[in-house]
Specification:
Oligomer: single chain
Order of helices and strands: HEEHH
Organism: Piliocolobus tephrosceles
InterPro entries: Alanyl-tRNA_Editing_Enzymes, Thr/Ala-tRNA-synth_IIc_edit
Strand order of the largest sheet: 1-2
Helix content: 40-55%
Keywords: Metal-binding, Zinc
Distance between the termini: 22 Å
Radius of gyration: 14 Å
GO molecular function: metal ion binding; nucleotide binding; Ser-tRNA(Ala) deacylase activity
Strand content: 5-15%
Protein name: Alanyl-tRNA synthetase
Largest sheet: 2 strands, antiparallel
Length: 87
């Protein structure tokens, strides 16, 4: 759950700061990866995302787990309220 929550947090911050959407992600046993819809990122962008993510973690904001049924419109539309109200 920790890595999965981290993926959502990084995705939300990248979208909020730079309008970068997540195109794929992999949570592996030894390595995890998040692919964003950009051909490249600057070191400054990576640092900004890292700083914002770390601030959110230090703020100890609650994580709410929501289970949806397969016929839920949010599943159908691919809509996920990633960290609503945090920005």
């Amino acid at each position: 759950m920790q890595q999965h929550s981290g993926q959502h947090l990084i995705t939300a911050v990248a979208d909020h700061l730079f309008k970068l959407k997540t195109t794929s992600w992999e949570l592996g046993r030894f390595r995890s990866a998040i692919e964003l819809d950009t051909p490249s990122m600057t070191a400054e962008q990576v640092a900004a995302i890292e700083q914002s993510v770390n601030e959110k973690i230090r703020d100890r904001l609650p994580v709410n787990v929501q289970e949806l049924s397969l016929d839920d419109p949010e599943v159908e539309d691919g809509v996920s309220p990633c960290w609503p109200g945090w920005f």
